[in-house]
Each structure stands twice: as structure tokens, then as C-alpha cells.
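lol forgot to send this yesterday, sorry. C-alpha cells for the thing we talked abt
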């Protein structure tokens, strides 16, 4: 028996486990479906692609996408301690203040505006550059400048500023617009996940139990209250009782899946699979958003790509000093752009990789080339997560509805066109040796985008919070219609933020920990 049972030891779950067990009188169980995070490739930044389709990956695939040439798209999601913070590209981006103010003003999420969340971003952070009005230094999450910066990425940044984009050395400060190198969640060149920053210290406390290889099959709901969970570990079904709350932190795929398996979700869908309806909550699994992107590539015949630096000599440098190509997060730089001057915030993000990106990174690089991801970050389209079966071992149906709204396509087209202009400017114009993709054959650009669009790995909004009664969670992240049950992860975001989603997921969990514990909330930031 525990006070809290947390399902999922990912980016949010690790934060909750640490913050809730800071009270020695609070007993917590955290259940993780995947194995421990003890593989070397997890902790070496440049090894990110080696984690694809491994035991540390849920290895999901979308349904065929009618507006993306009927293709299915591979979706990697972290399945280990630290979740996707143990398998991502480590980019530390919070989002734009407009995102969070929109959560508050348009979705009725009182207490989730930018001024409310900034103190939690800062509480989480251990910023290498030091404390400031926007950054903290006392948190568990280490944020550093890259210890390896490839010349091709530097050339792209210089060309982008020559083209006219603003230079920005802090996308998490006063302004998000502009281009530069990204900061990363690393410590001295090593990945620094939430398992490293939060869970490792919490695991030393006697009031926390961590169970890996534990697949939760349902939330036990009795008389309208969540009283625990059923899970399978070592081939045996077990139960854990929660005296206070069950907290779902499985992410935008697993949390709605588990709610529906437990009888909480769209009634007709549940009945069609023979699941008894506990609460008819149509919003569960709906509203899915993700950042769609396309990789634009150029040949760089006279410049070595990142993959050419991955060798024994570089490995020895990394193991001794934490530097060199192995310390690269691969997507080293980029930036944020408004494709129209009337926009309240950027709608386009770039990621720049000093290597080709083929078949979603599943094909080993073997050419000298660089990639620029053009990404829609003000996403208009919505998709869904639905059950394929009442068997919890079956992967769910994931439909991100890529390019279902033409506005998302238009941003990608603008991004490809601008990326081409940048490549023809400044130092890049002297480096690139022709366009690798889309290519220079004059093919229809919109059709190419539809054939190439893939995920940037940022699913959100499938258990969205809101002030309206039809939202899945209220603004305190409590599931409507079930007492003692909350969701704390990216699925509660009412809309996907502009930028990489790991940092805002951690901030959501930081604030949720205070809500759950019933303690005082951090006061909102007062801006001059």
C-alpha cells in the first residue's frame, strides 16, 4: 500500500517521484514498463539513433496518413527510466510565452500562463551559464552549452544571419525568434535525463519504490474512485493500492490508452471492444497534436559529416574529456521564424544536423551531407489515439492527422523555400554541392512534402486539461468523473507548445507536484 502510485517513470514521472518523496512521510511507488537505463548508448549523446527500435523504445507506428501520401510514420517513444528524456536529442526549449498564455486564456487553464510556469522552469533548472531573470541554478536538471559544435551547423547559423534572421543565443530568454546553437540537457557531455537528475537522488530514499519491467494493465476504480492499479511483472499480475492518488505519467500515447483500458473514455469506442464503461469521457485520446517536419538536405562534398567523426579516437576523447563528436546531440542548432509578420509568435522551427537524415534516421548515414528540418510548431491539425484491442499488450491506433489542416502544409512549404534561400547565402553557398532533397529536378514541392513529412517526436494533448466540463482533466490535472486520479505528462497540454516538449513537460510536473502535495504554489513572475 502506497500514498501515491505513479504510472510511468518518464520525464514527468521522475519529477513527481522526487518531489513527492521529499516528504519522508509520503510513500510512493513508481512503475515503469521498460528496463533500467543502464545501457551506454543511452548516456552517449550521439548514440541517439542507436536507441530507435531497441528495447528502450515503444516502437510505435501511426495509421496510414491520407494527407501524407497514405504512409505510416514510425514513432519512437522512450521506454526506460527517464522515458523519452533518456532517448531524445536533449534539446532544451521551453516554448513561447504565447503558448502558455493561450492555455490560460483560450482553454481556461487558470494558473498555467507563462508567468505562472516560469518559476517552475527555473526551479527545475541547473543552468551552466548562471542564474538570471529567466534561468535557475539550483534545480536537478542540468542545462549546458554543447561541448561539440560541428562546422556545418556553425556555417548554417552564419548563413541564416547573413540572410537576415536574428542571432539568438538564448531561445528560453526574453525572445524566442532567431537562430543559434541549442542548449542541451547534458552534464559535461553526458546525457542528463530526468532519471539522472530527479530519480537517482529520490531512489536513495526509503519511501520510494521503483519497479521496472512492470506493465500497468488498468487503473482499479471502485465506487467512482481510483484505488490502485493492476500490473504485470515477471509474468505475474500484481496489484498496488494507492491511499491518496493514482497518477498517470505515461505520455501522450500510453496515458489515454490506459484510461480507456480502465473504462474511462469515449463510451461507444469502449463498448465496441467489450470494455465496461466507468466514465463516458469523449475527450480521452482526442486532440492529439505533434510537430510535423520535413528534412531538407544538401551535399557537402568537401566537409566531413558528423558520422565520419565517430571512431575509436573520438570515443577515447569522449570517454576522457566528454568532448568531440560523441558529445554531439546531432541536432545541434536551428531557430524559430515567423512565416508572416502578423503572427503573435513563431510558427516555424529549424533543426540543423551535420549529417544526412534518411528513413527517419533508421538508415545509417554514408554520404557527406547536412540536413535542415523544417517544422511546423504552431500546429493547426488534430488527431487521435484509440485502442486497437482490450488487450493492454496491443499497441494503440495512433492517428496524428498529419497535414489534415492546410495551414500546417503552408508552414512547411515556407520553411523549405526559406531553407533553400539560406543555403544559397553566405558560407553555406560556398560549401554545399547541390541539393540532396527535395532535389533540383523541379518536382512539385507540396507533393514532396506529403511524401516526406514525419514526426519531430513531440506528441501532446490527448488527455487535455481545460476549464470546460468536456476537457479530460481540470486545471489541477484531476481526471473528470474519477476521484483520486490525475494525469501529469505532455498529454494534459491543451495545445502543443512551440518547440521541443521535454522542458515544458518537466515544468508541468514540477507545478503538478505542488498541486498534489497541497503545498503553496510558487508565486507568478512579475515582469517589468
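and heres what i got for the seq, position by position
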Amino acid at each position: 500500500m502506497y500514498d501515491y502510485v505513479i504510472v510511468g517513470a518518464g520525464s514527468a514521472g521522475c519529477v513527481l517521484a522526487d518531489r513527492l518523496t521529499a516528504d519522508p512521510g509520503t510513500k510512493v511507488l513508481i512503475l515503469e514498463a521498460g528496463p533500467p537505463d543502464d545501457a551506454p548508448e543511452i548516456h552517449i549523446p550521439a548514440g541517439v539513433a542507436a536507441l530507435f527500435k531497441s528495447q528502450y523504445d515503444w516502437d510505435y507506428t501511426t495509421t496510414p496518413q491520407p494527407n501524407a501520401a497514405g504512409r505510416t510514420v514510425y514513432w519512437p517513444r522512450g521506454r526506460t527510466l527517464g522515458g523519452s528524456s533518456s532517448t531524445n536529442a536533449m534539446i532544451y526549449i521551453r516554448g513561447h510565452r504565447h503558448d502558455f498564455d493561450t492555455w490560460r486564456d483560450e482553454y481556461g487553464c487558470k494558473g498555467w500562463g507563462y508567468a505562472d510556469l516560469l518559476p517552475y522552469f527555473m526551479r527545475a533548472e541547473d543552468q551552466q551559464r548562471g542564474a538570471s531573470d529567466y534561468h535557475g541554478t539550483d534545480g536537478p536538471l542540468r542545462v549546458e552549452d554543447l561541448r561539440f559544435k560541428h562546422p556545418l551547423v556553425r556555417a548554417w547559423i552564419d548563413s541564416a544571419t547573413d540572410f537576415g534572421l536574428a542571432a539568438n543565443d538564448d531561445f528560453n530568454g526574453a525572445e524566442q525568434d532567431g537562430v543559434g546553437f541549442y542548449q542541451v540537457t547534458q552534464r559535461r557531455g553526458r546525457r542528463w535525463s530526468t532519471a539522472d537528475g530527479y530519480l537517482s537522488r529520490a531512489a536513495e530514499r526509503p519511501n520510494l519504490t521503483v519497479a521496472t519491467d512492470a506493465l500497468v494493465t488498468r487503473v482499479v476504480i471502485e465506487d467512482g474512485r481510483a484505488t490502485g492499479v493492476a500490473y504485470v511483472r515477471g509474468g505475474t499480475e500484481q496489484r498496488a493500492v494507492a491511499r491518496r492518488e493514482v497518477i498517470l505519467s505515461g505520455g501522450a500515447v500510453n496515458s489515454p490508452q490506459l484510461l480507456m483500458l480502465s473504462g474511462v473514455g469515449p463510451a461507444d469506442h469502449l463498448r465496441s471492444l467489450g470494455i465496461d464503461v466507468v466514465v463516458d469521457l469523449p475527450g480521452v485520446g482526442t486532440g492529439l497534436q505533434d510537430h510535423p517536419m520535413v528534412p531538407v538536405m544538401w551535399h557537402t562534398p568537401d566537409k566531413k559529416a558528423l558520422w565520419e567523426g565517430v571512431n575509436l579516437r573520438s570515443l577515447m576523447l569522449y570517454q576522457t574529456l566528454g568532448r568531440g563528436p560523441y558529445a554531439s546531440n546531432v541536432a545541434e542548432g536551428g531557430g524559430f521564424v515567423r512565416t508572416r509578420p502578423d503572427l503573435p509568435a513563431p510558427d516555424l522551427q529549424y533543426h540543423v544536423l551535420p549529417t544526412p537524415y534518411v528513413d527517419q534516421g533508421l538508415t545509417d548515414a554514408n554520404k557527406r551531407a547536412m540536413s535542415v528540418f523544417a517544422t511546423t510548431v504552431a500546429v493547426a491539425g488534430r488527431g487521435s489515439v484509440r485502442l486497437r484491442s482490450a488487450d493492454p499488450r496491443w499497441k494503440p491506433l495512433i492517428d496524428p492527422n498529419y497535414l489534415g489542416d492546410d495551414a500546417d502544409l503552408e508552414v512547411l512549404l515556407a520553411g523549405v523555400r526559406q531553407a533553400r534561400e539560406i543555403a544559397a547565402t553566405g558560407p553555406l553557398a560556398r560549401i554545399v554541392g547541390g541539393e540532396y532533397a527535395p532535389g533540383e529536378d523541379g518536382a512539385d514541392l507540396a507533393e514532396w512534402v506529403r511524401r516526406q513529412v514525419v514526426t519531430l517526436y513531440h506528441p501532446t494533448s490527448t488527455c487535455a486539461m481545460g476549464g470546460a466540463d468536456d476537457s479530460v482533466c481540470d486545471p489541477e490535472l484531476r481526471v473528470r468523473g474519477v476521484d483520486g486520479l490525475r494525469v501529469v505528462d505532455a498529454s494534459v497540454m491543451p495545445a502543443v507548445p512551440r518547440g521541443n516538449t521535454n522542458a515544458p513537460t518537466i515544468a508541468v510536473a514540477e507545478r503538478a507536484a505542488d498541486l498534489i502535495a497541497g503545498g503553496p504554489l510558487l508565486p507568478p513572475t512579475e515582469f517589468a
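The chain has a mean pLDDT of 97. anyway ping me if u want another try
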